C-alpha cells in the first residue's frame, strides 16, 4: 500500500498543475460565457479542436520514446538531446509554413480574415511541442514540484491575461469604470479583436515556459544522430498513430459537428451556436479528464520503474482499483450537482440547453481513463502496434458514430458516440492485455462501483425539487452515502486481506 500512497502523492503534485491549474483555467468559462454568446465562442471551440490534433502530430510519440529509451538504456542526456533536437526542427518547420499560409488556412477552415488567429495558434502549438521534452525530463527525474510550478504559472498567467483583456481593458474602454485610463488602454486594447484575446493570452502564457524551464534548455545540446534517433522514431511512430487516433476520438465531434448538423435542427439556433453550447457544456466533463491527466503524468514513469518487480501485476491491479473508485466518485459528484455547477460556470441560460450530455461525457472519460491505465501492458511489452490498432478502431467508431448520429440526435449523438468509442477501446485493451500481459484486475469491484454510481446519478436526476436548497441537500446526501459505502467496504476488504495473510 505504501507504493500506492507514493504514486498518489506524485499524482497529487502533478495534479497541482493539472487539476488546480485547470480549475483556475476553468474559471474563464464563466467569464467567456458571460461576455460572449455561443456563436462567438464557436471559433475557439473549433480551432482548439484542431490544436489538440496537431499537438499529437508535432510530438509524434517522441515523449514516450524518450521515457522508454532513457529508462531502458540509462542514457538520459543523449536521448534528451536527440528527442528535443528532432522536435525543435520539425516544430519550427511546420509552424513556419502555417504562419506563411495563415490567411489561406483560416479561409479553408471557414473563418476568412482570421489569419492572425491561425498564426498565433501555430506558434502556440510549436511551443507546446518543444516544451514537452523538458517536461518529460522533469517527470523522469521525479521533479514533480518544478513540473507543477511551471504549469501553474503558465495557467495563472493565462487566466490573468484573459481577465485583464476581457474584463479590465474592455470595461475601461467601454467606460464602465476608470474611464480616465481609456487613452492608455486604447494603446493595447481593440474591441475588434474580440475572442482573439483568448488566443493572445494563451500565446503570451506559453511564451513564459522558456524562462520557467530555462535550466532544461541550457542543459540542451543540439544533437542529431540518425543511427540512434531511428529506433526512437520506430518506437514512437505507433504512439503517434495511437495518439492521433485517440485525439480524433476526443475532438472529431467538434470538428465535424457544423457540417453534419441539419439546418434548423435546434429551433432558433444556428449550427455554430449549437456547437458553442455543446463545446461549453463539454467543459463540465473536464473534471474527470483533469484527474486522468494528473494520473497519467505520475503513472507512466511509475509503471516503467516497477515493471521488473515480481509483484508488479498485483501493484498495477491495485492502482487500477483505486483509480476507478476515484473516477466513480467524480462521475457521481459532478453529475448529481449540475444544477449548482451550471449556475457557477455557464452564466447565460442558453448554455444550459446542452447539460444532458455531461453525465454521458463523464462516463466516456472514465472509460478512457481506464483504457490509459490498461494500455501500460503494450508499452511495457514493446507491443505498441496493438495500441495503434485499438485506438484506430476507436477513431473509426468515433467518425462513423458521429456521421450517423449527429444528423439524428445533434450533440447528444456526439456524447453517445464518444462513450461507445471509449468503451470499445477499453474492452479491446483489456482482452488483449489479459492475453499478452495478464494482470489480476478486480473486475467485481470495478463493475460494482461504476454501476452503483450510475444508479445514484439516475436517482439524483429523478429527484429535482423546485427548492434549490432541498435539491442540493438531497444530492449531497446521495454523494455522501456513496463515499461512506466506499470507506466501509474498503476498510472491510483491507481487514479481510490482513486476516487471510495472517492465517496463511
Describe this structure in words.
- This protein has 504 residues and is mostly helical.
- The protein contains 23 helices and no strands.
- The relative contact order is 0.11.
- The model is unreliable at 497-504 (pLDDT under 50).
Quick one: how many beta strands? Answer: 0
Order of helices and strands: HHHHHHHHHHHHHHHHHHHHHHH
Overall structural class, as computed from helix and strand content, comes to: mainly alpha
Percent range for β-strand residues: under 5%
Q: Considering DSSP H and I runs of 4 or more, what fraction of the residues is helical?
A: over 70%
Quaternary status = single chain
Radius of gyration: 23 Å
Net shape: globular
Instruction: Extract low-pLDDT stretches.
Output: 497-504
Mean pLDDT reading? 85
Distance between the termini: 19 Å
Total of helices: 23
Query: What can be said about the biggest beta sheet?
Result: none
Amino acid at each position: 500500500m505504501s507504493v500506492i500512497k507514493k504514486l498518489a502523492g506524485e499524482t497529487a503534485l502533478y495534479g497541482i498543475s493539472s487539476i488546480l491549474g485547470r480549475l483556475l483555467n476553468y474559471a474563464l468559462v464563466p467569464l467567456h460565457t458571460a461576455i460572449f454568446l455561443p456563436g462567438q465562442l464557436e471559433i475557439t471551440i473549433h480551432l482548439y479542436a484542431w490544436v489538440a490534433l496537431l499537438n499529437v502530430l508535432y510530438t509524434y510519440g517522441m515523449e514516450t520514446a524518450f521515457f522508454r529509451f532513457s529508462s531502458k538504456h540509462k542514457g538520459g542526456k543523449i536521448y534528451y538531446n536527440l528527442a528535443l533536437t528532432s522536435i525543435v526542427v520539425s516544430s519550427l518547420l511546420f509552424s513556419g509554413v502555417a504562419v506563411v499560409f495563415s490567411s489561406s488556412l483560416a479561409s479553408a477552415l471557414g473563418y476568412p480574415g482570421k489569419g492572425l488567429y491561425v498564426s498565433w495558434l501555430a506558434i502556440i502549438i510549436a511551443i507546446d511541442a518543444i516544451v514537452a521534452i523538458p517536461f518529460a525530463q522533469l517527470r523522469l527525474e521525479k521533479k514533480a514540484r518544478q513540473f507543477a510550478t511551471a504549469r501553474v504559472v503558465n495557467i495563472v498567467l493565462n487566466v490573468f491575461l484573459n481577465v485583464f483583456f476581457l474584463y479590465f481593458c474592455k470595461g475601461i474602454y467601454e467606460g464602465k469604470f476608470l474611464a480616465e485610463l481609456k487613452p492608455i488602454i486604447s494603446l493595447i486594447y481593440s474591441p475588434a479583436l474580440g475572442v482573439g484575446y483568448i488566443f493572445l493570452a494563451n500565446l503570451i502564457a506559453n511564451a513564459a515556459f522558456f524562462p520557467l524551464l530555462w535550466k532544461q534548455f541550457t542543459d540542451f545540446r543540439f544533437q542529431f544522430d540518425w543511427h540512434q534517433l531511428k529506433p526512437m522514431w520506430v518506437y514512437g511512430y505507433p504512439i503517434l498513430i495511437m495518439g492521433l487516433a485517440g485525439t480524433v476520438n476526443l475532438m472529431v465531434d467538434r470538428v465535424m459537428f457544423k457540417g453534419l448538423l441539419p439546418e434548423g435542427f435546434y429551433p432558433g439556433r444556428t449550427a455554430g451556436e449549437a456547437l458553442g453550447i455543446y463545446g461549453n457544456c463539454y467543459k463540465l466533463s473536464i473534471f474527470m479528464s483533469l484527474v486522468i491527466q494528473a494520473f497519467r503524468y505520475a503513472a507512466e514513469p511509475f509503471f516503467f520503474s516497477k515493471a521488473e518487480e515480481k509483484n508488479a501485476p498485483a501493484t498495477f491491479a491495485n492502482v487500477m482499483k483505486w483509480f476507478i473508485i476515484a473516477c466513480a466518485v467524480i462521475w457521481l459528484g459532478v453529475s448529481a450537482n449540475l444544477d449548482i455547477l451550471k449556475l457557477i460556470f455557464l452564466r447565460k441560460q442558453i448554455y444550459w440547453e446542452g447539460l444532458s450530455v455531461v453525465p454521458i461525457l463523464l462516463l466516456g472519460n472514465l472509460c478512457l481513463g481506464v483504457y490509459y491505465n490498461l494500455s501500460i501492458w503494450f508499452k511495457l511489452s514493446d507491443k505498441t502496434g496493438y495500441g495503434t490498432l485499438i485506438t484506430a478502431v476507436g477513431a473509426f467508431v468515433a467518425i462513423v458514430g458521429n456521421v450517423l448520429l449527429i444528423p439524428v440526435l445533434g450533440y447528444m449523438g456526439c456524447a453517445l458516440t464518444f462513450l461507445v468509442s471509449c468503451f470499445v477501446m477499453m474492452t479491446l485493451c483489456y482482452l488483449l492485455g489479459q492475453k499478452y500481459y495478464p494482470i489480476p484486475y478486480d473486475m467485481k469491484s470495478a463493475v460494482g462501483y461504476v454501476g452503483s454510481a450510475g444508479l445514484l446519478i439516475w436517482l439524483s436526476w429523478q429527484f429535482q425539487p423546485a427548492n434549490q436548497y432541498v435539491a442540493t441537500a438531497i444530492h449531497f446526501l446521495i454523494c455522501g452515502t456513496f463515499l461512506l459505502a466506499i470507506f466501509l467496504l474498503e476498510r472491510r476488504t483491507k481487514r479481510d486481506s490482513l486476516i487471510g495473510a495472517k492465517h496463511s
